[in-house]
Design a protein that fits this description.
single chain; 422 residues; alpha+beta; 2 domains; five-stranded antiparallel β-sheet; 14 helices; binds adenosine-5'-diphosphate; binds 5-S-methyl-5-thio-alpha-D-ribofuranose; binds magnesium ion
C-alpha cells in the first residue's frame, strides 16, 4: 500500500482495509473522526463508535516532516516503527501502563492503538491543580519495570544487544542531541526565550563549567546504553485519570541512560510546581498543591528505587549479564550484591539530576517550552517561573555528584523558590 496522509474522510476506509482492524466497527456503526494531535511531531485521529464508545481507537500517523516546525523541517517516517516497537516492549514489561497496540502499518507509518477516552494529558489537570493519588505508584512501576527488564541487570548480553539493535533511532536521537543538549546553549535560529530572563540565558551560554557538565551529560545520553528508555517522558506523554495511568508517545525510544527518563518525569512535575506562582495566586491554595507535587516527586524516586531493587533481587537470572547470579556466590556475596545495587541506584539518582537539570534549561531557552509555562500570558509572571527553573536546572547539573537522596534535589527547589514573592 503506497503511503498517503490520512484524514477525517479517508480514515474509515483505511481501517476497514487493515486485517487487524477490519472487524472493529460494524458496517452501520455511527463512527466519528477527530484529529486531536497537540504534540510536536505527528497527527493523531480519534475514531469513535458513538454507539459503543468503549470500542473506539486512535490512529497516529507520522508524516515526512516535523509537525510543529512545518513541512520545511523534513523528518523520515521511521519514528512510527520505533514507537510501535517501544509500545510492544512497554506492554510486555509494564502491562496496563501503556496503551494497547492494535496494529502497525509501516508503509503508512500508522499505528492503531487503544483510545484513552477517559484519560487526560497530565499537564492540563495539573495546571488546574488536580491531584492524582496513584500516580507515584503507577509511574514508579513503569520506570522500574521498563528500565530494569531491558537492562543488562536482567537480560543476557546477546538478548540486550539484539534488542538494542532494533532501536537505533538515529534521527530522533539526533533531534534530542541538538534540541536538548546543544542548540539551546548557543546561537540557533529556533531558540526561544523570554527577554525578561535574558540575563540568566546569557549566563548559561557563557558559563564554562556548566557547559562542560552539559557536554558530559550529552556524552552519557549518546553513549551509555543502559536500558530501553522512553526518551520523551514529560507530562505531555502521560495520560491519566484518578484510577489509571498510561505512558504514550515513545517514538524517541532507544538504549540510553536510565536517569534520563526518571529526570524527565521529576523535572516536568517541578516545572508545573513553578507554573503555579502564576496560575494560582491564592498563597494557601498554591502551597497546598505545591506540597502535593513535592511529596509526589519524593514518592516517585523512593518507590522507583525500592521497586527497581526488588525486581533485581527477584528476577536476576543465571545468565543476566550484569551479573550472573552465581557471580555473588561467595562469603559476603549477598552484602556485595546489595552494595552494588545501591551503587547503581546512586548513579541513576545523579543522572536523574543531571539530565533533569539539562531538561529544565532546554525548556527555558530552546525550541519549545511546555504548556504549563507557555500558557502564562503575562511575561513578567512567566519570568518568575522561568528564572527559578533555570537556577534549579543549573544546580541539579552542577551539584549532581553530591546528591545522595531525593531530598537533596527537592532542597534545591525549595532554596531557589524561597525568595519568590507574588
Ligand atoms: P506527538 O508524537 O506529536 O507528540 P502524541 O503521541 O503526544 O503526539 O499525541 C498527541 C495528542 O494526541 C496527545 O496529547 C493526546 O491528546 C492525543 N492522544 C495520543 N494518543 C492517544 C490515545 N491513545 N488515546 C487518546 N488520546 C491520545
Ligand atoms: C521540535 S520537536 C521538540 C520536542 O518535542 C518532543 O516532545 C521532544 O522533546 C523534542 O525535543
Ligand atoms: Mg508527544
Amino acid at each position: 500500500m503506497p503511503f498517503y496522509p490520512l484524514n477525517e474522510t479517508n480514515i474509515l476506509d483505511y481501517i476497514r482495509q487493515r486485517p487487524a482492524l477490519a472487524d472493529f466497527f460494524p458496517a452501520d456503526a455511527p463512527v466519528t473522526v477527530r484529529e486531536v494531535g497537540d504534540g510536536n511531531l505527528n497527527f493523531v485521529f480519534v475514531v469513535e463508535n458513538q454507539a459503543d464508545p468503549a470500542n473506539s481507537m486512535v490512529i497516529k500517523q507520522a508524516l515526512p516532516y516535523l509537525r510543529v516546525l512545518g513541512e520545511s523541517w523534513p523528518l523520515t517516517q521511521a519514528r512510527a516503527r520505533y514507537e510501535a516497537q517501544a509500545l510492544e516492549e512497554h506492554n510486555r514489561y509494564a502491562p496496563g501502563l501503556a496503551p494497547e497496540l492494535y496494529d502497525f502499518n509501516e508503509e503508512m507509518a500508522a499505528i492503531a492503538m487503544e483510545y484513552l477516552g477517559t484519560h487526560q494529558i497530565m499537564r492540563k489537570p495539573m495546571v488546574a491543580r488536580e491531584k492524582f493519588p496513584h500516580f507515584a505508584d503507577h509511574i514508579s512501576s513503569f520506570l522500574a519495570r521498563t528500565l530494569y527488564f531491558t537492562s543488562d541487570h536482567y537480560l543476557s548480553g546477546p538478548e540486550k544487544k539484539l534488542l538494542q539493535a532494533k532501536f537505533v533511532n538515529e534521527e530522533l536521537r539526533k533531534l534530542q542531541e541538538d534540541f536538548v543538549y546543544t542548540n539551546p546553549y548557543k546561537e540557533s535560529e529556533e531558540n526561544n526565550w523570554n527577554p525578561l530572563v535574558d540575563d540568566e540565558v546569557q549566563a548559561v551560554r557563557s558559563d564554562p563549567v556548566l557547559k562542560m557538565a552539559i557536554a558530559e551529560l550529552k556524552d552519557a545520553y549518546m553513549n551509555h546504553a543502559e536500558a530501553l528508555i522512553h526518551a520523551d517522558l514529560h507530562t505531555g506523554s502521560i495520560m491519566l485519570n484518578q484510577e489509571d495511568t498510561r505512558v504514550i508517545d515513545p517514538e524517541f525510544a532507544f538504549f540510553g541512560p536510565m536517569g534520563y527518563d526518571v529526570g524527565a518525569v521529576l523535572q516536568n512535575l517541578i516545572l508545573n510546581y513553578l507554573s503555579h506562582f502564576a496560575h494560582t495566586p491564592d498563597p494557601e491554595v498554591r502551597a497546598d498543591y505545591q506540597a502535593w507535587i513535592l511529596e509526589t516527586v519524593r514518592a516517585i524516586w523512593n518507590q522507583f528505587a525500592a521497586k527497581f531493587d526488588q525486581l533485581w533481587v527477584e528476577n536476576a537470572r543465571p545468565d543476566s549479564e550484569l551479573m550472573p547470579l552465581d557471580y555473588w556466590d561467595f562469603p559476603g556475596g549477598e552484602e556485595a550484591f546489595a552494595a552494588y545495587r545501591q551503587r547503581i541506584l546512586q548513579h541513576i539518582l545523579e543522572e536523574t539530576a543531571g539530565h533533569g537539570g539539562v531538561k529544565f534549561l532546554r525548556r527555558m531557552m530552546g525550541v519549545v517550552s511546555v504548556w504549563d509555562i507557555s500558557s502564562i500570558e503575562d511575561p513578567a509572571k512567566r519570568a518568575v517561573a522561568e528564572r527559578a527553573a533555570i537556577r534549579i536546572g543549573k544546580r541539579w547539573i552542577l551539584e549532581r555528584r553530591r546528591f545522595t537522596g531525593i531530598d537533596d534535589l527537592i532542597q534545591v527547589v525549595l532554596d531557589e523558590t524561597a525568595a519568590v514573592t507574588v
